[in-house]
Amino acid sequence: MTVDARRTDEFIEWRTAVVDSRPVDFGVGGYGETVVFLHGWGLSPRAYRSALAAVVHRGYRVIAPALPGLGGTAELDRADRTFEGYAAWVTRFLDAAGVAGPVTVVGHSFGGGVATVVARDFPTRVSRLVLVNAVGGGIWSSSGGQERSIRERPWWSWCGSAMVEAAETAHTHRITQFPLDEFAFNALRNVGAVWRTGNLARTADLIDALEEIAVRAMSVVVLWGAGDRVIPRASFDAVCAALHDPEVREVRGNHNWLIDDAELFGQVLTEELAGRDVNAPVLFPSLASCSTMRIAQ
């Protein structure tokens, strides 16, 4: 059964937790194994509500907080505005939300960078890490194909790509689901926080953290929308190399594929969480005749 976007409130409930004496909006729903979802730059978990509902519908409990500086959550103190600071905040949120024991942590884009550092710095809190078109590869390819440090990528390239992909998503969704609307809402609330988190995402080089996670042999899955123009392919390849060939699933779609095709996200993620036989053929109805999948050997 497909989850109707208009009925996501049947699957996801919105609550408020208190972290560091400040309110935090978060989505929660379902029963079973707990999946903590960390959203992307400029957005909030509400932009992903159909994707989260699709995971809940398949038998998992999902918890998705609005990260500091976004979605109405207060920004971190200046000294804590690093991936390490965000990761520590996530653990405090989990305590406030009553989430005990190790959990699967899923991070998209900027949230993937946060999830990476949560897994490195707080390994007892994470049973499995899932990175969805995540930042952190540290490499950028210019139009000429030359690989450079991600810090050399211009702001206009990062923001322009993000806005183009958000606009593409807007063509296929109701206005209440547009990433552009979410971004504008966050910018109006706290434009400084949006700029600062964007800069952190744009310059993210988490190779050392990824290599440390690989050494620990933590279970890691990398999900990738192959048409991504926000995260360079070179950065994605660097993430996979640092993780020493993790399990990788590629699908057709751009940076926001999990928002564009919530059912596909729910299917792919829960197959990986359930330990699907990676050698078995997979046909995604939403991809029709063109299914793209790669499992790194």
Give a description of the structure:
Helix 1 crosses helix 9, helix 2 (83-96) crosses helix 3 and helix 4 (155-170) packs antiparallel against helix 5 (179-202). The protein has one domain: Rossmann fold. A hairpin with a 5-residue loop joins strand 7 and strand 8 (147-149). The protein is built from 9 helices and 10 strands. The protein has 297 residues and is an alpha/beta fold. 49% of the residues are buried. The longest helix has 24 residues, at 179-202. Helix content is 37%, strand content 19%. The strands form 2 sheets. An 8-stranded mixed beta sheet has the order 1-2-4-3-5-6-9-10, with helices on both faces. Residues 277-297 have low confidence and may be disordered. The chain has helices spanning 49-57, 83-96, 110-121, 155-170, 179-202, 207-215, 233-242, 257-260, 262-273; strands at residues 13-19, 22-29, 34-38, 61-65, 103-108, 126-132, 139-141, 147-149, 219-225, 247-251.
